Amino acid sequence: MGHGRSRPNTIDRRQFLQVSALGSSGALIGARRLLGLQTKSVSEPMFRLAPLKGVDFTLLNSPTPQKYLIETMPGGVALLDYNNDGLLDIFFVNGGHITSPMHPPFSFGRRDPRYWNRLYRQNKDGSFTDVTEQAGLASIGDMNYGMGVAVGDYDNDGFPDIYVTNYGRNVLYHNNGDGTFTDVTAKAGVAAGGWSVSAGFLDYDNDGKLDLFVTRYLDWSVEKSKACGSLEPTYCPPGEFPPIANILYHNRGDSTFEDVSMSSGIGAKKGHGLGVAFADYDLDGYTDIFVTMDVVEQFLFHNNGDGTFTECAFDSGAALANSGKMLSGMGVVFQDYDNDGLPDVLVTQLPHEPYVVFHNDGKGSFSARELETGFGAISGSTGGWGVGLEDFDNDGWKDVFIVQSHVFDNVHKYDSSLHYREPPLLALNHNGHFERADAGSDVPVAARGAAFGDLNNDGWMDVVTTALGEQPQLYLNRGGRLHWLTITLHGKRSNRDGYGARVKVNGQVRFATATGSYLSSNDKRLHFGLGSADAADVEVFWPSGIHQTARGVRADQFIVVEEAAET
Amino acid sequence: MIHVLLLLCMLLQATSAENSLPPEVRTLLQSGSDAESRSDLDGAISAFRKATDLAPTAAIAFLRLGDAYMKKHDYAAAIRPLKRAAELDPDSLVVHRLLGYALLTEGYASEAIPHLELVHEYGALGVAQLQAGQPAEAVASLQAALAKSPNDPDLLYYLSRAGDEMSAESLDKLLSAFPDSARAHQAKGRTFYQMKMYPQALQEYEKAILLRPDLPGLRLELGQVYAATSEWAKAEQQLRTEVELQPGSAEAAYRLGDALLQQGKMEGAIEELRRSDTLRPNMPETLYALGKASAASNPQAAEKALNRVLAMEKETQLAGAAYFVLAGIHRKQGKTELAAREMQEFRRLQALNTPQP
User: CB neighbours of B127 closer than 8 A, spacing ≥ 6?
Assistant: First the structure.
């Protein structure tokens, strides 16, 4: 791993307009290029499976013959810099222990260190140190079976906080800024309950404070559990259990949250929610919410700008696949794949139907374009979970990486053409059309979570994935010759993380968010591939309404954009 | 209905036969009939049995006894007196009818066949033949029965079963006589495909193609296996060869067009789908696929194709799917009200065609 901390440039408004050229990793990259290092030949795969040195985490889901549905759904991974040392750290959500069968009182054995969630701090040499216990993140409570993770600085103190979803009670960990966290769930009032899946921080009312959205899957409990299947027991489809509403928490600004699910309209629609992603799809300045739904119509919550949302997926053309069929929606990403400036939606789902691309046609409407974009050719025989739309080859077009697996661990007995374990799918974006590429591993795993970020700060996006019963995998980008720019937002009037900002670089647009994929939280920095361009024009549209621009920003560096006091 | 006709016929014949019997036997038969009319079947059986004891060569007495047992649904007990009646009066169609049904009901299908043949009871005969392992004969009999009662669900069900059996029988013959022939592998491939055992189906089709690379239909079927597993590039490859082998096949052109459509190769898809539409016009599936393929590049052509679907398909799932694609086209054109109406139609037809749990 080509480590060595690249200290980001901090650009305030005045400097930003003048374009900073202070020390960056660009010189290092240039030197490597001259020496012929870190350049990728055409035949080489994009990634190599690299060891996560010092990481001994195994995602324990405890599969049982009773086929408790929660067993097949965890677990998330987050890439975050919890100690602000410039290196991405990794947080893993574990499942829990399930006895066969379970008897009340139900416990998931989370006090046992094997079932802890884990936080690994990245060291300067690229290795990791397990800091779970010293960070105060050890046991999350015996009654909680782990699912996903969201990361955001909800109190704007400059340190990322962690929210963990569970079957049971969700937990909000406040980052104390000294390497430790405190469980503030009770005070914050964000425990939710039932079966939460994915979550994400967003500022839906642009008040500068991060709110919290939580998807919930089913009205399910251990007591209500049952197995399905005609040949042998397997996990039941979601329709066997009642639907349930998602949750929206509004940040009051005093470290407490208010459940506004009903008053906002979010709670009015029940479904089988799994993934969630945010973007302002109609460019009205307010963050909208897309929730993937399992075998019901997808949900697109349009933010009305007055604290309420209208679910409009069906009328907007973003509820159903190109075939008019319902999706078994799981992972989701809400970014612009075709560089038309409007965020599109990509949804992963179970096999026999391709992954779905909802193209944003503008004026609030979408069209399902899985066939036109090539997903019909590269998917359909696999199930997809975690997903990222990132420019892995830095050519200026966002590519797709999807971790894959089926829900059923015995799916081959029902359909011999399907497999429980699958290798990931990497598809490179050629002017809006995706073509399969070598992901660097054909090792099949029962993958679930995937988080995307530049783990070694070399300007090339990497992937960390989770798999049931297995250790996590690091897909380390081999790098190449093309240019890049990575931007960290520092909100002032807007929320500290800058979530909700729209950032435009050389015509490409990214919506600032760490939320997307499945159960996971990505590197919050915004990465842009610049192709052969060695400089970039940058525009930031902050949630506060402030608009900043800069021309000729030198490529191959990490920069920080601080929100100006005014436009 | 059949039973009512049988009874009427039987009563007419019985009246004339009874006149030649001794008075005490006639009294017992009358007493049995009275008991039957009071729904006292046990009383009727007792009276008819006494009549058979008093007149052991009177076919009518055995017939009435057998019929009483059948009314009591005791078909096993009915067989013996009916067989005796048939011995005594081999020309009695009523006896053969009842005996045929009694034997068939009790599972003696082979034994029932000659009796049912004699009375041209084609429906029951077909069932007996099917159960006796004579599917080809069963198909003929059931078709004859359906000619008289074309909408009889029982007859339709048994005919479909007989067709399946016949197909299985032919397959068995093919596999035992020519186990390594291309057709045998094709047949096995088809079976595996129907059982969703796609890897096995692929193997069989590949073997068949190796033996008979020029055999029309093989690649069409292999292409469908690849399509079922979403391996569209491989499906395209096979279907292209099939189209070369069968340039006049509308199905091959349609399937190739669909494989191209699934891969987003819209121009090629449109070309093949149009060709299919020319070879065999007004196939709703072809027109629907043509509408989907044309939606982005030529919305007018797409609308035309989809409206042709709607002209043929009224309340079907395919009609719903056509509305869905039309709504997408119109939404993109800014015709939001029209799109909303089409989405409502889509939703209505979706609900109409989705089986309720």
Answer: B104, B109, B138, B142, B158
